[in-house]
Amino acid sequence: MFESYTIKDIAKALGLSTSTVSRALNGSYEIGAETKRLVLEYAEKVNYRPNPIALSLKEQKSHSIGVVVCEVANDYFSQAINGIESIAYNRGYHVIITQTHESFDRESANVQHLLSRHVDGLLVSLSAETTDTTPYKYLHEKGFPIVFFDRVATDVNTHKVIANNFKGSFEATELLIKAGFKKIAHLTNSINLLISRERFDGFKAALDKYGLDFNPGYLKHCNHGGMIQDEVEFAIKELLDMDERPDAIFIGSDRLTINSMHILKKLDIKVPDDIAIAGFTNSDVAELFDPPLTVVRQPAFQIGQIATELLIKTIESKWPVEDFITEQVEIELIARSSSQRIR
């Protein structure tokens, strides 16, 4: 076992008061250069490390960040979390990750738990069920640092980091139209989420540009975002059973896109012969599907990094932060065989 030295031990060894040692370790201007040198050299010699629990009690800071996402087993969020941790770790913060599984009640419980752990701030991506953001407004108004990413709360005036959802959806739908598909369905997440509305707007704008009518029957919402396989399968079967079956589907979220490919294969529907597919996903195996999958890819790692930088900047600000930004990052459309018409 390593012997753990305290400020009292250093003060006793050097014949100084504990307050002098504490101020010297913190670089206070009240302490002379020679005293600082003696204290720092001795602290290094005995491998002194501040007690994080004592520090958090004294400073009311835990040097930890709470993260709220729908699920970790999601290609987008796993990459975003890697981005979050890459910044937080290097800045001396621990990361506590919680999952909502698209439940508002679980999200509320997670936030309460994180607050009870005295996290210094929150990085939040809302659940599909969340429509009441009053708790976040309350925390924000009290000065508690919150940054939203991906699934953001429009009515909480704080930092937000998003992808260009409209552009990604427009370009993917336009790609399908230019490939010759005219009857394009849209499978997406809960209407509660701003990203669902933005992605629908991009989809609809592409149809409008090329003079294609929007068929309301072609719009299917999966409120659990692909986490319940039967929900996705039911939506796809409804589309396939229509008298005027769609010839392509644009899919608006990561897990929905991957699950749809599995379900279509199970139903013996050939892509793109029977129906073409393009969708949002950050899956690293999208190009290994049969056929390779056309995707809208978001810079999830970068989004996680930007959100964390903004949060830590807010946490460490010496003055109340009043100016907030919404950072929008660009998507990448990767065209592959799943969206090409077989000639």
TrEMBL record:
Domain HTH lacI-type, residue spans: 5-59
Pfam family, one: LacI
InterPro entries: HTH_LacI, LacI/GalR-like_sensor, Lambda_DNA-bd_dom_sf, Peripla_BP_I
SMART domains: HTH_LACI (SM00354)
UniProt-listed SUPFAM superfamilies: lambda repressor-like DNA-binding domains, Periplasmic binding protein-like I
Keywords: DNA-binding, Transcription, Transcription regulation
Entry protein name: LacI family transcriptional regulator
Source organism per UniProt: Mucilaginibacter pocheonensis
